[in-house]
Specification:
heterodimer, A: mainly alpha, MetI-like fold, 11 helices, 0% strand, B: alpha+beta, OB fold (Dihydrolipoamide Acetyltransferase, E2P), 2 domains, 5-stranded antiparallel sheet, 18 strands, 28% helix, 33% strand
Chain lengths: 272, 317
């Protein structure tokens, strides 16, 4: 008897192994409890009370605008300054480097309200350095810069350590100046990490409360950021209005983060 | 012509190069051969300007370039681990040296197309380095280095990260490429077979010194010293004399000048057979015979044979 021409029998599709299935289950449950449920509750609370008009008040729109603008500015500054700091920590060597490296995480360890008090003492009306920025928008940016410092530094640092320095030597031997090498070879390889750091810094800046609340002065239409405005709504018994503004803030942040993510995928399309 | 004059270079306590002088004639393909730590890569990097020597000078076609940065030396450099620009396509990698010089677009297109053909990567221009095999990546590295018409081409263990078969192919291919272009080329390698096969001159380095400079054939037949003798091929030692395994004659009967030995192992290498022997004084000896000879002698393990060198080298100390 001749062998069947259909000798190759299709095997059943491999399914997730037991371990992988467990990991998916645990992740889903964990994310649901920790993130998704609270977010859903927030949206539900807003919707149930029909409090969307809280969002469209002039004061609320001003606060949202200020928050997004300040966060955007902070993200841009951190992209440049954070990369520069990471570069110095990885590529240069100087006495006290270890200490400087440790100090980078300091803003995370400091209770944010302490940051606010410290900044107020340093850059407030009785400033020992002669700079009075208290109750201005500059103070907000300053506070946000302080609390978001570690993000870009800490995302870029490991990538810079791993970066193949022979690429830079190759560029040099092909005639590229250090500036050209940085622009055409180093930066494109750092960009994904910079964007990750920027996304984290932006998200943190959008929701930041403690470090801003004292130095900003919370003047409506002038220096009142969204988180402080939301806190004000809660204090005056309008929890539903607070939830509504939060939902809008979250939605805008989500859109920005998705945008950064899409751009990041675009610049990493060569990693196959 | 590349002239490296009295180059010394230390890394901390480690002396990589100790007063090394090497000339590379224009149009030649010279190999820097040595074990790891011999200073061969450091010398290449000094020539490229990627490393600055502590003392000594480098001349390219008579110009002293010792203090000139790599950008202005007009050298092409090929790295062991490719150093591919991983965020650029094959096309952009090869075009890099041209585009940063603001070369007209049409010229870039023609040159890159020509180079892609030369390195047999024409169909892969739009791929990223991560989508290429090691051999393809290295050919891309070569094309990238050649794009700017370098005065000299420097290759640092270019085939070291590739598997044996691809390595052999690329070696032959590099030799043919050199025969066509005649670019002055220096290749660093720790593999004596690679050096012999590809280069017309071999500089043997060891511990930061030059041991010998010779054509591959002379290196094998007339090694300058013990180090070169044992580095460029397998060797036996009998007293003060050094003997290549193929210069050991294996006989079944003693004839006065022979020494008794026992066959310990037979290694079949296709056309040839390596006979591992133990001499009556307990020393190891290896002999290389053809398969016909081995069959005629009916060699087998444990057998007693009689050996004598047909050719030996003694170095005066």
């Amino acid at each position: 008897m001749a062998a069947s021409p259909q000798a190759a029998v299709a095997l059943p599709r491999a399914r997730l192994s037991g371990g992988a299935g467990l990991a998916v289950g645990v992740s889903t449950a964990y994310l649901s409890v920790v993130v998704l449920l609270p977010l859903a509750a927030l949206v539900w609370a807003t919707h149930a009370h029909g409090s969307w008009q809280a969002v469209t008040s002039k004061q609320s729109i001003a606060a949202l605008k200020l928050t997004l603008l300040a966060s955007f500015a902070v993200a841009v500054v951190q992209a440049i300054a954070g990369t520069a700091v990471a570069w110095t920590l990885v590529r240069d060597s100087f006495p006290g480097q270890g200490a400087v490296n440790a100090v980078i995480d300091f803003p995370f360890a400091l209770p944010t309200i302490v940051t606010s008090v410290t900044l107020l003492a340093l850059y407030g009306p009785r400033s020992p350095v002669g700079i009075d920025a208290a109750f201005t928008r500059w103070a907000i940016v300053l506070a946000l810069l302080f609390v978001t410092l570690p993000f870009v530094v800490r995302t870029v640092q490991p990538v810079l350590i791993e970066l193949d320095q022979e690429m830079e030597e190759a560029a040099a031997s092909l005639g590229a100046s250090s500036l050209t090498t940085f622009r055409r070879v180093v930066l494109p390889n750092l960009l994904p990490a910079v964007l990750s750091g920027v996304a984290l810094a932006f998200a943190r800046a959008v929701g930041e409360f403690g470090s801003v609340v004292l130095v900003s002065g919370n003047l409506p239409f002038k220096t009142e950021v969204a988180s402080v405005y939301i806190f004000g709504r809660i204090e005056s018994g309008d929890a539903a209005g607070a939830a509504a503004v939060s939902v809008v803030l979250l939605a805008i942040s989500f859109a920005v983060l998705l945008g950064i993510g899409a751009f990041r995928r675009r610049v990493t399309r060569h990693d196959v | 012509m590349i002239e490296a004059r009295r180059i010394s270079k230390r890394f901390g306590d480690f002396v990589a190069l100790d007063d090394v002088t090497v000339d590379v004639p224009t149009g030649s393909l010279t190999a820097l051969l040595g074990p790891s730590g011999s200073g061969k890569s450091t010398l290449l990097r000094v020539i490229a300007g990627l490393e600055r020597p502590d003392s000594g000078s480098v001349l390219l076609d008579g110009d002293d370039v010792t203090l000139r940065p790599p950008q202005k030396r007009g050298v092409g450099f090929v790295f062991q681990h490719y150093a591919a620009f991983k965020h650029m396509t094959v096309w952009d990698n090869i075009a890099f040296g041209l585009t940063i010089r603001r070369t007209p677009r049409a010229t870039v297109r023609d040159r890159v197309t020509e180079l892609l053909e030369l390195v047999q990567l024409s169909g892969l221009a739009k791929r990223y380095p991560a989508q290429l095999s090691g051999g393809q990546r290295q050919r891309m590295g070569l094309a990238r280095a050649l794009a700017v018409d370098p005065k000299v081409l420097l290759l640092d263990e270019p085939f070291g990260a590739l598997d044996a078969r691809v390595r052999k192919e690329l070696r032959l291919w590099l030799r043919r490429l050199h025969d066509e272009t005649h670019t002055t080329t220096v290749i660093v390698t720790h593999d004596q077979e690679e050096a012999m096969e590809v280069a017309d001159r071999v500089v043997v380095l060891n511990g930061g010194h030059v041991e010998q400079v010779a054509a591959p054939r002379d290196l094998y037949d007339k090694p300058a010293n013990e180090f070169v003798m044992s580095f460029v091929g397998p060797v036996n030692r009998m007293g003060d004399a050094f003997i290549r395994p193929h210069d050991v004659e294996v006989l079944l009967e003693p004839n006065g000048s022979t020494q008794e030995a026992m066959v310990e192992r037979l290694v079949h290498l296709g056309f040839e057979v390596r006979v591992e022997l133990v001499r009556d004084d307990g020393e190891q000896l290896s002999a290389q015979v053809t398969r016909e000879q081995a069959e005629a002698l009916e060699l087998e393990r444990g057998q007693i044979v009689y050996v004598r060198p047909t050719r030996q080298t003694v170095f005066s100390s």
